[in-house]
Amino acid sequence: MCPHSADLRRRIVTLYERGEGSIRQLAKRFQVSQDSVRLLVKQYQATGSIAPKPYTGGPQPTLQASHHEVLRELVEADNDATLVQLAERLACKIA
Length: 95
Fold this sequence. Notes:
Pfam families: HTH_28
Shape: rod-shaped
Number of domains: 2
Protein name: Insertion element IS150 protein InsJ-like helix-turn-helix domain-containing protein
Structural class: mainly alpha
Largest sheet: none
Distance between the termini: 38 Å
Domain Insertion element IS150 protein InsJ-like helix-turn-helix: 9-51
């Protein structure tokens, strides 16, 4: 899901700060959820920023930084190995 545009965010916050609409009214007017308006206003009041927050979701990396060097050595030793073979060899080296 993409964040709302900076222009839309600015208009929502400006109108809310001027008292030209409640959270419910602004959500209906701009066809966004009430929660979007509420969170945007809360963020602006706390930080002064209307910029979208960075995406922090997704799975955590399986390989740690220390594993990268081991994997690099395995690939250099046998650059024709398949991913399955490399995964098996890596598991043996780091287990």
